[in-house]
Design goal:
The protein is α+β, with helices and mostly antiparallel strands. It contains 15 helices and 26 strands.
Length: 715
């Protein structure tokens, strides 16, 4: 690898701290490879299970045929012993793999930015069908033959009838088993064809990722030469994320923070859970009962293996980092090994730090990792800390991350940023990505906010960038306008950057076109990658979760009395973009006027009795301030009318409601036939006052149908 660290020395921009979360092309590429490996393993396990089922059926046939035949019964029992031994060997192989985590890491290739830029690391393996490539064995008719009668028995009519019945039963059993084996073989062939289709799709996607990897590596090298602290953090995160040869069921998620002033890198690495160590120690066949028993692995042995696995993971990650730092950029590395598990005090899931270690370059260079005892090395040679009971997720004190960046608490809200400043920020973002950029004058810009030029002589050219500070979903018309502007400017690519999101219609129009859509979350990720500040909406205040009562989940139609005169509503969902709307209704279920319709263009009603925050999907209803004429407040969710999205495009939609100390959750149905849904309603009850009801009913014609049915005039 080219010694880029020597060219930038120890001055990496003087920017203090850079933090990095997994989002680079290397982690994506590695995860794609790991996902393919998981698919291969799932296919292997499915084929093995199918083979075991078939073998079990054959053993039953053998056992039935072996009754009374000593030699046949002995062969059957020997086969069962061999099966138990084979399964025990698989357990031993798994334990050997766990104990070899460090050795596998040391034997594998180190990360090379030069190789990545040439696309040389991460080759595509040829198709391997594994167990699916082996046909299902068909039963042998000789297993089912009934020995002929001999001597006087051959002339005994009763014995003859019994023999004929046994022979007929054996023939029927053979035919049944043959049909079962034939069906299993047909299923194997179908699974093989499906697996080949999956492999071909994966290989195509991997080709695409490898091409992107080469481009990304070249840009990262340029940013490293320019001395960007964020590039250093990104480089070392790529180092720890790119390896694909961790054992199955191991998480491979790492984050890094880099302090340029102290030349200190801190890594957060997710460790495997305790259940990666098999709880079964061996299998044995019990001849007297003709059954297979599981023999538990001793608890002390299982815990000892797990502690060793954790130590090996830590040493392997540290080795990867120092091996990739060929220019001596790093002075020290801190590593926090965590599992994601519930906190026993609060019940909330979060990081539980099981091990922590910090080591300087000189100390680590003095280790012979291929000969160390991992636990002794971690705890004694490096002075690390390891949980006394990692299987219980008991924690140790974590290594402090690099000092908080000065801009962390004062990042600008992109929604509230001046439009010109926002355009300058976008221009700076793309400049740091290696483009030559310039902003346009506000008047006469012909729909162009930023002009960029990619200097690459093969893939480069003129790029038109539009920057839109929107809170609402960008309509497909904006994407069409960008395409027209791009062609009018003679550009070969167009990029639309927004603080909000895009619906399926916009993404469908951009598909296959030289257009790139960057939504709010992606924009924040890019800003973080390149050391630029920015947030979407107000800075969050940590919630006091331990003091909040648990939320009650409501079923459709379920109602409850509201304990307070103020109701707070929030709608959350992934996938398609959706908006929260509210309607103030009279006794007939209609609005009195259009002013009773609260949505993103009209976010308040009744002098603030109902307020909507369109940017974060929340609303507040102050029932005590509603006039007597209002008997219901309908709370609804609607998808973008300019797209073909339906409620089926929402991922895990949830309505959260709170009144006083009480909290409720409602998970509305994801119905593909509707694009606007009444999720809940507040209504007056003559005896109980204001009540809440979960609903979950909708309209196929979206917001227009919802509004029309409640008396809003729709043009």
């Amino acid at each position: 690898m080219e010694d880029w660290s020597l060219s930038i020395g120890l001055d990496v921009g003087g920017a203090g701290v850079a933090r990095r979360r997994s989002s680079g092309v290397w982690s994506v590429l590695a995860e794609a490879q790991r996902e393919q490996h998981r698919r291969v393993e799932a296919q292997r396990k499915a084929a093995a299970a199918q083979q075991r089922d078939h073998e079990r059926a054959q053993r039953e046939a053998q056992r039935a045929a072996a009754r009374g035949e000593r030699e046949a019964l002995k062969a059957y029992q020997q086969q069962r012993d061999a099966d138990a031994a084979r399964r025990t060997a698989e357990l031993d192989d798994r334990v050997a793999e766990l104990r070899g985590v460090l050795a596998a890491g040391l034997a594998g290739p180190g990360f090379s930015l030069a190789e990545q830029s040439r696309g040389g690391q991460g080759a595509i393996p040829p198709f391997d069908p594994g167990p699916l490539g082996t046909p299902v064995p068909m039963p042998d008719q000789n297993w089912y033959l009934v020995p002929p009668l001999t001597g006087a028995q051959a002339y005994n009519p009763a014995a003859r009838r019994q023999w004929e019945e046994q022979a007929a039963h054996a023939r029927a059993r053979f035919e049944y088993d043959w049909q079962a084996a034939w069906a299993a073989e047909q299923q194997r062939q179908r699974q093989l064809a499906d697996y080949r289709t999956q492999y071909d799709a994966w290989a195509t996607e991997r080709h695409r990722l490898l091409a992107g990897q080469s481009t990304q590596a070249g840009r990262l090298e340029a940013r490293l030469r320019a001395g960007e602290a964020a590039a250093v953090a990104e480089y070392f995160e790529a180092v720890i994320d790119w390896r694909e040869d961790w054992p199955d069921d191991f998480p491979t998620d790492g984050e890094t923070s880099w302090d340029a002033d102290t030349r200190r890198l801190v890594v957060r690495w997710e460790l495997p859970p305790f259940d990666v160590v098999p709880s079964v120690g061996r299998y044995r066949y019990v001849r007297s009962d003709d059954r297979e028993d599981e023999v538990a692995r001793p608890a002390t042995q299982r815990k000892e293996i797990y502690r060793e696995v954790l130590a090996q993971c830590a040493l392997r990650v540290l080795a990867e980092v120092f091996r990739a730092d060929t220019g001596g950029l790093i002075s020290s590395v801190g590593l926090n090994g965590v599992v994601v598990a519930p906190d026993p005090a609060t019940g909330q899931e979060g990081d539980r730090c099981l091990l922590a270690v910090e080591v300087d370059r000189e100390t680590f260079a003095g280790l012979a990792l291929d000969r160390v005892a991992p636990l002794d090395c971690l705890l004694e040679a490096l002075g690390g800390r390891l949980s006394a009971r990692p299987e219980k997720a008991d924690t140790v004190a974590a290594i402090p991350a690099a000092a908080t960046s000065a801009v962390d608490g004062d990042e600008p809200d992109l929604f509230a940023m001046d439009p010109i400043e926002f355009e300058k920020l976008i221009a700076e973002l793309f400049r740091r990505r290696g483009f030559r950029t310039s902003t346009t004058a506000r008047s006469g810009d012909e729909g162009v906010d930023v002009l960029a030029e990619d200097p690459d002589p093969i893939t480069g050219g003129k790029i038109v960038i539009q920057a839109k500070r929107y809170r609402h979903t960008v309509s497909p018309s904006a994407v069409r306008d960008l395409e027209s502007t791009m062609r009018r400017q003679g550009a070969n690519r167009g990029i639309l950057v927004t603080t909000s999101g895009f619906g399926p219609g916009s993404r469908k129009h951009a598909a296959g076109q030289p257009l790139t859509l960057v939504d709010g979350p992606m924009l924040l990720t890019l800003l973080r990658e390149h050391g630029l500040p920015g947030r979407l909406g107000p800075a969050e205040i940590p919630a006091q979760r331990a003091e909040e009562p648990a939320a009650v989940e409501l079923a459709p139609g379920q109602n409850t009395v509201l304990p307070d005169g103020e109701v707070r509503v929030r709608f959350r969902a992934g996938g398609a973009d959706a908006d929260l709307t509210l309607l103030l209704l009279d006794t007939g279920g209609k609005v009195r006027a259009d002013e009773d319709f609260v949505f993103y263009h009209q976010p308040t009603a009744e002098n603030g009795a109902v307020t909507l925050e369109p940017g974060d999907g929340s609303a507040t209803v102050r029932t005590a301030r509603l006039p007597a004429a209002i008997h219901r407040v309908a709370i609804s969710v609607n998808l973008d009318a300019d797209t073909d999205a339906t409620c089926a495009d929402l991922v895990d939609p949830t309505v959260e409601l709170a009144s006083g100390p009480a909290r409720w959750l409602f998970r509305p149905p994801t119905d593909p036939a509707i694009s606007a849904m009444l999720v809940a309603e507040l209504y007056r009850h003559p005896a109980d006052g204001w009540k809440l009801r979960a609903v979950g009913q909708g309209w196929s014609d979206g917001l227009a149908g919802l509004a029309r049915d409640h008396g809003v005039e729709v043009e």
